[in-house]
Amino acid sequence: MSPGPHQLSLLPADPTPSLRVVTEAVRTAGPDGLPGARRLADAARYQEIHVRAALADVRAPSMPFRWALNPYRGCTHACEYCYARKYQRHLELGAGDDFSSVILVKTNLPEVLARELARRTWTRGAVAVGTATDPYQPIEGRYRITRRAIEVLTRARTPFHIVTKGPLVVRDRDLLADAARVVACRVYVSVPTVDDSAWSRLEPGTAPPAQRLRAVRQLIDAGIDAGVLMMPLVPGLTTSRAIVTRTLEAIAGAGARFVGANVARFEQGARDHFFGFLDREYPALADGYRRLYARGRPDPGYVREIHGMVHAAAARLGLERPDQATGAP
Is 14 helix (H, G, I), strand (E, B) or coil? Predict the structure, then answer.
């Protein structure tokens, strides 16, 4: 197929370009300039790329892990609050629809990861899978990059944890169970709320919360250390005592032993997108948000209040915090 009128004319013949080539193509011609991107049934563009590095060193005092692994860039889950939207500007893409409609697929990531973990300098530091975009968004069913990465991590006896909203994770419970026998391995399924109204607006591309909680049960039944993250809690939408209690009851009912929670942050890049969403969908909350997030992050006193409410309700239900829970059930 010949390139469209807006595509770069000097793109390399290799159908799997590097991230640098893709970024330059978007800078020059926008998403229409992506070399070889394919639209699938969900109408998103999927661009295969080759990467030179698989692991990202994210060392920072605020991070409970040092290494991050993201098989994809962009995410069709399209969560309105997603902090990872801010990373799109590094690719010359917008934080709005581009984030959920242009997905970069790192087809060579498992092979690159294997080389990195084979280095004599590798110290088997813990790896967080899915820190920027969901490793089990639907396209993983086609490419199986996350599955292959799990195999590599297990062979290298490297501890890891996964964060996902995708019930597709249960497909890999065989690998995860094998990994748990030789290395520390945990799955965090993200279920910020079971309130249908908030879920459908805030997370339009995700599976229903009940389906994600069924995935938690299936993982636990397979002997995998799995729990839930109520992250992020969105002020005024998912933070009422009634909604929080109902969500925690559903989490406990799924058999989870631990639950973590935190209040949404809206940093530069993600902030403008989310506040635009509020202006359209919840205009009555917009002014209050601008006051609560006047300094970029929510007021610390408010955060303490929400944490206290969640932790007290979770304790009554026998749910531990992630840092208290150890090992598979």
Answer: coil
β-bridge pairing 55-57 and 67-69: antiparallel
Q: 126: pLDDT confidence band, cut at 50, 70 and 90?
A: very high
Strand 38-39 vs strand 45-49: parallel, antiparallel, or unpaired? antiparallel
* 3-class secondary structure, 264: coil
Sign for the pseudo-dihedral over CA of 235, 241, 244, 246: negative
Question: Hey, is 282 helix, strand or coil?
Answer: coil
**Cβ–Cβ < 8 Å for 51, 111:** no
Convert the pLDDT of each residue in 1-56 to its tens digit. 333 433 333 333 446 766 566 566 555 555 555 555 555 546 688 989 999 999 99
Identify which of 2, 210, 190, 214 has the alpha carbon closest to the alpha carbon of residue 11. Answer: 2
Q: Which residues pair with 179 in a beta bridge?
A: none
SS3 content of the chain, % helix, strand, coil (to 5): 40, 15, 40
Contact 63, 53 (CB under 8 A): no
Say if residues 163 and 128 touch (Cβ distance below 8 Å).
yes
